[in-house]
Amino acid sequence: MFYRKKGFKALILAIAVLICSFIFAPVGAYADNGDGLYLGGFPAGFVLSTTKVEVVGLCDVLTENGMCSPAREAGIKAGDIIDKINGEKVNKTSDINDFVAREYKKYDFEIIRDSEPLTLSVKPVKELSSGGKRVGVLVKDSINGIGTVTYIDKTNNKFASLGHPITDANGNLMKINGGTVYNSIIYDVKKGVRGTPGELRGAFESSVIGDAKINCSCGVYGTLSDKFACSKLIKVEKASIDEVSVGTAYIYSTVYGKEAKMYKISIVKVDKNNKDNRNFVIKVDDKELLEKTGGIVQGMSGSPILQNGKLIGAVTHVFINDPTRGYGIGIDKMMSSY
Hints:
mainly beta, six-stranded antiparallel β-barrel, elongated
C-alpha cells in the first residue's frame, strides 16, 4: 500500500499518499530525545534509487541528417527494462550513455519485457548539438511515493516503514541502491469504497527523515538523519505476537496534515506463522476514521498497531472488497529485518 508516483524524474511533487492509523489512550510519554523505541504514524516521502533502468519514453535525436530515434527503430518500448548492453549490466541511467559512448561495432540491448528477456540491436546516432552518440530513449532509475513510518529506533539510529515491500508491476520485490526519505504532509483523502481502494494524498517537504538502506519483505528501512528529533514522538514498548489477542486495539494514523491520531480497531484474527507476513486481520471500528476514509486506504501501510499500550505491528494491506478490513504484520518480524 505504498503509493508511488509514475513518471520521469518526479521528485518533490504532490503525490497520492498513504498514512497511518493509531491508537487511543496514553501509551507512553513524549520523547526526550533519548535512546529507545518511538512510535511513527507520520507520513514520509520516499525517493529511492533502484537497480533497474526502466524506459519511460522514446524521443527523436537531431542529427545532421534530420530527426531519428534509434531506440524506436530497434523496437524498444516504454515499460522495457534495459538490463544489459553488450553483456554489461546496466544499474543506473548514466550507464547507458557510458556504454553507448564506447566504440563498439554493434550495440546489443538486453531487454526485460513482461518478465521475458529480449535482445535488440540498436544503432546509436551522433547528436548534432553535442556531438555525442545517442539512442533516443528516456529512462528512469528511481521511484517515489508516500508511506508511513512505523517506528523510530533511536538506540540504533534506525527507522522502519510500510510493513511490506515495494514491488514492480509484476509483484517482484524491487532492489534499491539507497535513497532519501523526507517529511511529508497529507492534504486530501480519497475515500475507499467496496471494490475501489481509497488513498491519502500528500506532498513532500524539504526536511529529511533519513537515508533509505533496504527494501525487503517487511518494508523499507534506513538510518536517521542527524537533524531528526524525537521530541514530539511517543516512547513505547513492543509486545511479541504471543501477547496479542483477538479484541480491541488501535492504529496511529495521519489522515490530514502531520498530526497522527488514535483510531479504534479490532483484531479479528491472529496468525503468527503466516508466511506472507499477514499476522493479523484487523477491522476499523472508529466512526471518525470511517467517516473520513471509509476504513483503510492506500498510504496507510506502515501505520503502527497497538494493543494494551504496546506496539504489536503495522498495517500493511486493505481488503479490496471491504475497506473496513485489512492485514497487519507483527512487530517482531519488522524489527528482526534490519
